[in-house]
Amino acid sequence: MAQPATESARLRRYRTSDRAACLALFSGNVPEYFAELERADFVATLDDIADYWVLEAPGEGVVACGGYAPVEREPRTAALCWGMVRRDLHRRGLGERLLRERLRRLDRDPAYARVLLETTQHSCGFYARYGFVAVREVRDGFAPGFDLVEMRRATPHADPARR
Q1: What pTM, to 2 d.p., does this model score?
Q2: Does 149 reside within a domain?
Q3: Mind listing the pLDDT tens digit for each residue in 97-130?
Q4: What residue numbers bound the domain in which 158 lies?
Q5: 80 - beta bridge partners?
Q6: Residue 1 counted as domain residue
Q7: Which of 27, 139, 150, 157 lies at a 20 to 30 A Cα distance from 120?
Q8: Which pLDDT band, with edges at 50, 70 and 90, does 7 fall under?
Q9: Is residue 63 part of a domain?
Q10: Rounded (10°) angle between helices 39-48 and 19-28
Q11: What's the total number of domains in the chain?
């Protein structure tokens, strides 16, 4: 089967008809990147999030998904939510494209001064390449063997004193 090129995948908003495809992406990344016990949280996010996106490749369907949401406890802060790529397509630029697009949207929106995310020790190096800095780590914070790593990044709308 031909592998989709990053440039041929189309970004679009998540639709409820994408639910099964997104759940398949999640399943394909268990147990290396997600713990099965996180599935309920992912499902709840799909049901509630407004800014969730999918990358759809010709002939392949949904190959990646991810979104962001405002953080209620922190004004002017958005959290990246549930970014993932089909397991057999890792390291082909799809996750990078999805992350860059979400950050581009957040960087253009003056409502946001900061972006945070909670990831694992398995993925924090990827996000560090895009300016995220680890600010908190909790051993087994998601599940056994899945440390919680909270990371943050300022947007261009951040107060220079708080960057």
Answers
A1: 0.87
A2: yes
A3: 999 999 999 999 999 999 999 999 988 999 999 9
A4: 6-162
A5: 68
A6: no
A7: 157
A8: low
A9: yes
A10: 150
A11: 1
